[in-house]
Design brief:
Blueprint lengths: L31 E2 L2 E2 L5 E2 L22 E2 H7 L5 H9 L3 E3 L2 E3 L5 E2 L6 E3 L2 E3 L7 E6 L16 H4 L1 H5 L5 E2 L7 E8 L2 H8 L7 E8 L6 H7 L1 E3 L2 E3 L3 E8 L2 E8 L6 H8 L4 E9 L2 E2 L7 E4 L2 H10 L3
Parallel strand pairs: 3-20, 12-18
Antiparallel strand pairs: 1-2, 4-7, 5-6, 5-8, 8-9, 10-12, 10-20, 11-12, 13-17, 13-18, 14-15, 16-17, 18-19
Keywords: Isomerase, RNA-binding
Protein name: Pseudouridine synthase
Enzyme class: isomerase
Length: 307
């Protein structure tokens, strides 16, 4: 085998050519990190709302100038650019409290508050709004010192990718159902604050056959050890053979409030599922799955808390 020659033409016995020199490094296998399998407890919900993002960059101005308003509206799924331009011309679009009618207006979607017909539109692509179906037995925490399964396990890959997520309020370990997860701090704060009175809806399977007149008692208020509590709405869905299924709606979030309220009137809860936060519904989402909230859901949450 011929060996590489030095500049003077004599062979170099110590230099060799590596056969793979210059070749691309081996690709990492999907789902593995550092050769170790990466596990995730998150399952995709059957129905997802995936935002469609344009690859065009012609409307992107110089750094600091923002993006044309009609493109921002189109990317947010409000309407096509042509229709968005008509909305702007008709004075239906508001940016940071000011009605905009000129077509050349540029905005920074990361900070701008945009409304169409008075309803806020989410235009910041960095904001994340998720619906989680928390399984029974899981903790409403981002980590657990005792190693119990928790919400943080389900969103671990998103957090590892740089999303700073947190859950909106809590569900106790034995309660399952809808829990919102987001990085939208102001929205989360208002959703949890009792002054905004965002209703939460629960299905409860309870002991005893609940009389329908019990709704009047719960709507009037029941005295608990930490003060009175009452339901906004209450209905009996089924009652037979010593057990009942009821639907209860309330807007306060004291610890174990639904369980304590129903136990106080003589019907301890055997199973409890939260089905709605405001108008956002759990639907048929599987336990342990995440679903990206659609534009209508997020808009309804903003409207409920006055954002």
């Amino acid at each position: 085998m011929n060996r590489p020659a030095r500049r003077d033409g004599t062979p170099d016995r110590h230099r060799t050519t590596k056969p793979n020199q210059g070749a691309a490094p081996p690709q990492k296998q999907p789902g593995r990190q550092g050769g170790v399998p990466r596990l995730s407890n998150a399952k995709p919900a059957r129905t997802q709302n995936v935002p469609v993002r344009s690859s065009e960059s012609s409307d992107q101005g110089p750094e600091g100038e923002g993006i044309r308003l009609q493109k921002v509206l189109a990317q947010a799924g409000v309407a096509s650019r042509r229709v968005a331009e008509e909305m702007i011309a008709d004075g239906r679009v508001e940016v940071d409290g000011e009605i905009v009618t000129e077509q050349g207006r540029r905005v920074n979607p990361d900070v701008a508050v945009v409304r169409v017909d008075g309803v806020r539109v989410v235009v910041n692509e960095n904001l994340v709004h998720l619906a989680l179906n928390k399984p029974r037995g899981w903790q409403s925490t981002m980590s657990d010192d005792m190693g119990r399964p928790c919400v943080g396990d389900i969103v671990a890959e998103r957090v590892a990718a740089g999303q700073r997520l947190f859950h909106v309020g809590r569900l106790d370990a034995d309660t399952e159902g809808l829990l919102l997860v987001t990085n939208d701090g102001e929205l989360a704060h208002r959703l949890m604050h009792p002054s905004y009175e965002v209703p939460k809806t629960y299905l409860a399977w309870v002991q005893g056959e609940v009389p329908r007149r019990l709704g009047n008692t719960l709507r009037s208020g029941v005295e608990l050890e930490d003060g009175p509590a009452k339901a906004d709405k209450f209905s009996v869905l089924e009652a037979s053979e010593g057990r009942s299924t009821v639907r209860i709606v309330l807007h306060e979030g004291r610890k174990h409030i639904v369980r304590r309220l129903l136990a106080e009137v003589g019907h301890p809860v055997e199973r409890l599922v939260r089905t709605h936060v405001g108008s956002v519904a759990l639907g048929d989402q599987r336990p342990g799955s995440l679903r990206v909230l659609g534009r209508d859901d997020v808009t309804s949450l903003y409207k409920a808390v006055g954002l």
